[in-house]
Design brief:
The chain has about 190 residues and is of the alpha+beta class.
C-alpha cells in the first residue's frame, strides 16, 4: 500500500508526513468509493479519519436545502468531520466523494490506541486541523470577493482545476453568478 503524497497539494491544507503514514499502516484499511458516494451524513457520529490516497472528497452542510462547502480534500490530505470525530458527537456535516476515490481509513478505536501509545500522532493531527481551519477562516474573512478568489487561486489552484465552478463558488461563500462576474473581470484585466 503506497501512500502518494501529492507535491501539488498545498501546505495550507492538512497534509500528513510520509513517515507518519508509514507508522500508521498496520492500523489502516483501504476503502474505494465511487463518485458521489457519501461517507458521512448529517446527524451521524464520525467514526473515521480518511487519508486520501487518490481522488477527492468534499465536506459540506445543508441549509434550507442549499449546499455550503466547508472543505475539499485531495491526495495527501486528511479528511474527516474532525469536531464530530474528536468528541464522538453527531455532526452537521456531510462527507462525499467528488470523484472515484481511494482512502486509507483509521477508525476511532485505532486512533485512541495510537494516541495512547504515540502522543506525537495526536499533536501532528491537531497541527494539521488547526492549520486547515485557520487558513479557511482567513480566506472567508476577506470581504472582497475578488480578493478571496485571487487568494484561493494562489493558495489552492488544484481545486479550481478539479471541481465544478458552482462548488468553487460555494467554497468561497458566493453564488455562481458572482464568481462568474469576478472571473470575467479578471480575464478582461489580463487581456488589457
Amino acid at each position: 500500500m503506497n501512500y502518494q503524497h501529492n507535491t501539488n497539494a498545498t501546505e495550507n491544507k492538512n497534509n500528513f508526513s510520509q513517515k507518519m503514514i508509514e507508522a500508521l499502516k498496520p492500523f489502516l484499511f483501504v476503502k474505494n468509493v465511487k463518485k458521489q458516494e457519501t461517507l458521512l451524513m448529517e446527524g451521524d457520529t464520525c467514526k473515521n479519519i480518511y487519508f486520501v490516497k487518490s481522488g477527492a472528497v468534499k465536506q459540506y452542510y445543508l441549509s434550507d436545502g442549499k449546499e455550503f462547502i466547508q472543505n475539499f480534500f485531495f491526495e495527501g490530505n486528511v479528511a474527516s468531520a474532525f469536531d464530530s470525530f474528536f468528541t464522538q458527537t453527531s455532526t452537521e456535516s456531510y462527507l462525499e466523494a467528488i470523484e472515484g476515490t481511494e482512502l486509507m481509513v483509521l477508525s476511532f478505536h485505532n486512533f485512541k490506541a495510537i494516541t495512547s501509545a504515540k502522543p506525537e500522532f495526536s499533536t501532528q493531527l491537531n497541527i494539521c486541523v488547526s492549520r486547515m481551519n485557520s487558513n479557511r477562516i482567513n480566506l472567508l474573512l476577506m470581504s472582497d470577493g475578488m480578493m478571496r478568489y485571487k487568494k484561493f487561486l494562489e493558495d489552492e489552484p488544484q481545486i479550481a482545476h478539479r471541481v465544478p465552478q458552482y462548488m468553487v463558488a460555494s467554497y468561497l461563500g458566493m453564488n455562481p453568478e458572482t464568481l462568474s462576474r469576478i472571473r470575467k473581470r479578471m480575464s478582461i484585466r489580463k487581456a488589457a
